[in-house]
Write a structure and sequence with these properties.
By secondary structure, this protein is an all-alpha fold. Helix content is about 65%, strand content about 0%.
């Protein structure tokens, strides 16, 4: 049988309750909870997993797509941005949108918007390829 570490201290019911409310209700970070309890971040994460609240944490909040659809379409159609560029612009504007969430949401938008996103991506890849070819020609000359 493994010998417990010297600095090991068993978890109390009150500590488990604090971890649960801090994560579920207050949406606090593991580091903040650990500092309050005087424990390591790993031990707090482990406690959250043991009581089944670690999967409840969300790093990206579910966005309100109805507000963002018009802006997404404008960025794709007017500014000819690619999907990663749109995601980055939305993040800079304060909307926590990941690229993967944006790609998934594009599947729900009209066909012409999806096609515009594809054409913008192709246009950018072609422009990068042409730039690379020009640089190679200039360096060879």
């Amino acid at each position: 049988m493994a010998k417990p570490r010297e600095n090991y201290c068993p978890w109390t019911r009150a500590e488990y309750d604090l971890v649960e409310t801090a994560i579920l209700r207050d949406n606090r970070q593991y580091a903040d909870i650990a500092a309050e309890l005087g424990r390591s971040v790993k031990s707090v994460r482990g406690a959250a997993q043991r009581i089944g609240v670690s999967r409840c944490r969300r790093h990206w909040r579910t966005p309100d797509w109805s507000e963002l659809d018009r802006r997404i379409m404008d960025l794709l159609e007017c500014e000819l941005m690619t999907v990663p560029q749109v995601a980055e612009r939305l993040q800079r504007l304060g909307h926590p949108i990941s690229r993967s969430a944006l790609y998934k949401h594009l599947e729900t938008l009209p066909h012409d918007v999806r096609e515009r996103a594809k054409r913008n991506g192709i246009r950018k890849r072609v422009a990068v390829g042409e730039r690379v070819q020009r640089r190679r020609k200039l360096s060879a000359a």
